[in-house]
Amino acid sequence: MLNQQVLAKPLSRERCEKCLLFISGPSSVQNLTIENRTADSLQIGWKPPRDPQNHTYTYCVCLINCTTDNESPFLAEGLKGGTMYKIEVRAITKSNVYGDTKTLNVITESYSPHQLSMAWNPPKDPNATDYSYRISWWREDGTQVDNRIILDSHYTLCSLEPGVLYLVKVTSDFNGILSTAAEQWTLTPNFRIQMINQTTAHFAWVNPNSPFSAIRLQWSTSEKSRGKETYPKPLDQAVLHGLSPSTNYTFIIFSIAGNGSLSRDSIGLQQPGATKPEQVSDLICVSLQDSWSLKLSWTCPASAVSKIVVLVSDQAWKNEPNCSEPVVIQGLRPAKVYQIKIKTFWYNQYAVSDTVECSIDTTDVLEEQNPDVNLPRVLGAIPVSAFPRLCYEKLSDSAFGFAVEYQQLQDIGTDQLQSVAQQHENQAKNRYSNVLPYDHARVQLTLKQEDPHSDYINASYMPGYKKEKEFIAAQGPLPATLHDFWRMIWEQRIATIVMLTNCVENGRVKCEHYWPLDYTPCTYDDIIVSVITETILPDWTIRDLCIKQVIRHARHYHYTSWPDHGVPQTTDTILRFRYLVREDLDKMKDNGPVLVHCSAGVGRTGTFISLDSLLCQAQDQGEIGVFSLVEKLRRNRPLMIQNEDQYVFLHQCLLDGIQSAPKNDRVILEHPAVYENILAMQDYEVSRM
């Protein structure tokens, strides 16, 4: 490899002599290996190039972006679990001459107990690019689970049982000629870690069925700190003390045979674990004059912090990467007391500070009322111009007006039949026993011949502003209903999915993870689902999905900042999110309903459907009918808009939405972290219209 430098040397006024100096670059690094692998990090090792000159090198390590590092090993952190990464390493001399690139493909460990990611090296054969692979897997008892023919040299097994030993065989196929199968036994993870505090962790595991005398727990850090403990049979949990705050650990658990050695057939279960960081201290808040704002300051902890989150009355307000900078919280309400806390994070672990109460100076909210405006009946549609004053009047006296109005919605629709959802065979398909679709509005799947109850799913058709069946409101899928969920998406020709919950909230599973963890396809019955692009922003994530029987595309809008049973602290992000969704919907043609779901499919789901429909009504007709729309939704599905806080929040969103519509989020998407995804997303926009 040659790099060219040009040296210019003036010899006289008449001419200039140019000399070309060629410098050979270093050879590639040696023995590129993965020294440690977790779900969110890879420790990469290598040896320097074997060159005649004894150079001192720096190295360029490429995963997604390039980073220079002076020595091996290199620790890449903050990665996604169950994801294949292409790693490139090359040496750089002091003269800034780059060497040849050494490449390695590796998959990070999977967090999910229902999935296993497999990868293998293709055969060393000139025709290897023309190979396909047959991957088959069996349970420990010999029952074959499934088999697939694929073209890639990696695959993710989905819908597995936690803690079960599986045998996986991979056979290469070249023009119908099969190779000898490569075999591997592997376990789905059933090894759980819970960090109790900054220095203590609780471990729980399932003991193996094979004979053993004890369980060995080993741990290590990137700083080469190591340790181990042994726990005799039949213990299946333990507490480990003396860990360091804000430290990334790797924990591995083995079974030990009767002679004290690791069992020959034992397979180590590996899990990452980060200890909790320390809290901030000396939290102070000051109300800023002439604005509804608070200025916050604090003292950072001595241990490392990856980011901080400011909590205002238990709702996340700001996400800051720098711990030491003061923060100003704007857009608060006057005459209200707020509880302020600071969350310090070290990766997926966090600590919460003590609470400080702060108040905003009292300001008259109802300025410039127009006494000449005559408000129509509260329960019907009203002119947009009258809506702000009506909202302020309902907010007075502790929002008594909203309480009275919401109470009138409680019994609407409750006299309708829910007989199909209540059938014994369908009860296990319902996440919550009190949230069941009405018979007349339920989504019916195509019946499978062998199962007369296979047409049931907990989902309801919902009216929007433009069509009677513009939306489908659904519960978040359960492990047993994942295949039905994707069957509904396929049969209803759904091209837009709006998800308003996180899969886990406050330590409880609210929705089963139903899309692939990475770019490896997952199969649900005969439907193959792939992630094409993923755009991650602070308050939502957008995924473009490819769904195959015949190829279709769907876009997955995942709003990640809405708390369970509550409301976001401000209206800004949900309004921008809704405008982004509506902009794409208005471009589409001949697609099915919009699928909207949270966990139960009523609270956050009802609020979002109402917000979109009412903003469309305000734009087209110049009036808003909140009560009449929510009443209509509740006749199709119970508990739509589940509590009074969500009902008030809907009005706040409408008020802010009609007063100043958010700017187009196509601009917001042009962010350095996600810019690489934009062109890919635009490439197939036309296919979704």
Q: List the uncertain runs.
A: 1-22, 261-267, 362-378, 662-689
CATH class placement of the largest domain: Alpha Beta
Class of secondary structure makeup:
alpha+beta
Number of domains: 5
Query: Main β-sheet, in a few words?
Result: 9 strands, mixed
CATH level-two architecture of the largest domain: Alpha-Beta Complex
Number of beta-strand segments: 44
Portion in helices: 10-25%
Oligomer: single chain
Protein model, in words:
With 689 residues, the chain is α+β, with helices and mostly antiparallel strands. It folds into five domains: 30-108, Immunoglobulin-like, CATH 2.60.40.10; 116-187, Sandwich (Immunoglobulin-like); 190-275, Sandwich (Immunoglobulin-like), CATH 2.60.40.10; 281-360, Immunoglobulin-like (Sandwich); 408-499 and 545-552 and 561-680, Protein-Tyrosine Phosphatase, Chain A, CATH 3.90.190. 15% of the residues lie in helices and 37% in strands. The protein is built from nine helices and 44 strands. A nine-stranded mixed β-sheet has the order 33-34-35-43-36-42-41-40-39. Strands 11, 12, 14, 15 and 16 form a five-stranded antiparallel β-sheet that branches. Residues 1-22, 261-267, 362-378 and 662-689 have low confidence and may be disordered.
Write the layout of secondary structure elements.
Blueprint lengths: L1 E9 L5 E9 L5 E8 L3 E7 L10 E5 L3 E4 L4 E4 L6 E9 L9 E6 L8 E4 L12 E8 L4 E7 L3 E4 L7 E10 L2 E2 L3 E6 L3 E5 L5 E5 L8 E8 L4 E7 L4 E4 L7 E9 L12 E6 L6 E8 L4 E7 L7 E6 L2 E6 L6 E3 L7 E10 L2 E4 L3 E4 L22 E2 L3 H21 L11 H4 L19 E3 L11 E7 L8 E4 L7 H10 L4 E4 L4 E2 L2 E2 L12 E3 L2 E10 L3 E9 L3 E8 L12 H14 L8 E4 L5 H19 L1 E2 L1 H9 L9 H16 L5 H4 L6 H9 L6
Parallel strand pairs: 35-43, 36-42, 36-43
Antiparallel strand pairs: 1-2, 3-4, 4-7, 5-6, 5-8, 8-9, 10-13, 11-12, 11-14, 14-15, 14-16, 17-18, 18-21, 19-20, 19-22, 22-23, 24-25, 25-28, 26-27, 26-29, 29-30, 29-31, 32-44, 33-34, 34-35, 37-38, 39-40, 40-41, 41-42
